[in-house]
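FAQ: What does the model actually see?

It sees only this:
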Amino acid sequence: MEFKRASKDNPVRTAEFRDGSGRNILNVEVLEGAPGDMTIGMSRMMDKPLPGIADQAYAGTNRLVGRRGGVTVILRLKGHAKGNDPARLSGLLVTALSRLQTTAPIT
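And it is asked to produce this:
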């Protein structure tokens, strides 16, 4: 999987997952710094907590948000995957968060 940035100075990286027809069904976003802080803060206020996942994790409408160290990961359901319970992807969020290097900056 390859993560892409909008620009060199952008602290957000994204990747898309597509179904067999080539339709985007899941976006993964990795955020650091202020964007990650703001995202996890908003999820803390608006979304359902998912205890036991990394430092913090929440399930919202069509998304899961988790944080480990100073890095935030968003799993966002897209296209025909929308409307499914995003908490069903909590195992994927656990995997993504467990693979993060929280001490080294994302390059």
